[in-house]
Amino acid sequence: METDNKTAPISAVQDQNQISLDLMNRMKMHGMAEAFRESLAGTTAQSMTPDSFLSMLLAREWDWRAQAAIARLTRNASFRYKAYMEEIDYTVSRGLDRNQMERLATLDFVRQGTNLFITGSAGTGKSFLACALGHEACKRGIRTLYGNAAKLLGALKVAKIRNCLEAELKKIERCQLLILDDLFLVPLDTKERPILLDIIEDRHERKSIIITSQYPPSVWYDMVGDPTVADAILDRIVHSAHTIELTGESMRKLKAKK
């Protein structure tokens, strides 16, 4: 009869330390197991009191789980760029305010359920900034999802045809922060409008959206294409939203020149 790893008996031939390591790994205490294994190879344990040694093991396990959670959140977010707040270039003149970015990096706007719009011409760094804030959210334990707006809405249209749209919308709703990249790059069609409205309605005043767009919010009404739906969408996202308006040349063009 096969025995599950969680219920398999402890081998009597193992020494006590090996038994401890075996149990730690079975209970998925991998950070603690790694720290304990390192202590066996050195003199850490001998130089610490029992309670200090236990505290060290627990701290290592906590750190390991925290890093694993961040890695899982980052992987599930599906970011377009590996972008981080520390890598943002403030030397290029493009209307980017360091103080504003540092305030946004606290993620208070996400905790408050408010939105952020990042607008500007192609290549000014909109997607990079959005992904950097998204990575920061993952580091704070905030479930995040990145999606190119056109591709996401296209996938949701297919989901509606397959009668699984509600399930896909629930996945989006579970994320505290949603990044819609390049929204309104092309006007919405008749099938995309109600889907976008559903997404926004589900998040209204509860969860945040970062929207990047080449167009300023002043023309989004026309980009939606239907006055009634446009009123409903913009009324739910525009009021009290934070805005970043990028200007200047394309960052990609400037890097190419360098």
Task: Please give a structural write-up.
By secondary structure, this protein is an alpha/beta fold. Helices cover 52% and strands 9% of the residues. It is built from 12 helices and 5 strands. It has helices at residues 16-26, 30-41, 50-77, 98-104, 108-111, 126-139, 149-161, 165-173, 192-203, 220-224, 227-237, 251-257; strands spanning 116-119, 144-148, 177-181, 208-213, 242-245. A 5-stranded parallel sheet has the order 2-3-4-1-5. Strand 3 (177-181), helix 9 and strand 4 (208-213) form a beta-alpha-beta unit.
Short description:
The protein is α/β, with parallel strands linked by helices.
Labels describing this entry:
5 strands; 258 residues
Sequence-ordered SSE layout with sheet pairings:
Blueprint: H1 16-26, H2 30-41, H3 50-77, H4 98-104, H5 108-111, E1 116-119, H6 126-139, E2 144-148, H7 149-161, H8 165-173, E3 177-181, H9 192-203, E4 208-213, H10 220-224, H11 227-237, E5 242-245, H12 251-257
Parallel strand pairs: 1-4, 1-5, 2-3, 3-4
Helix pairs in contact: 1-2, 2-3, 3-6, 7-8, 9-11
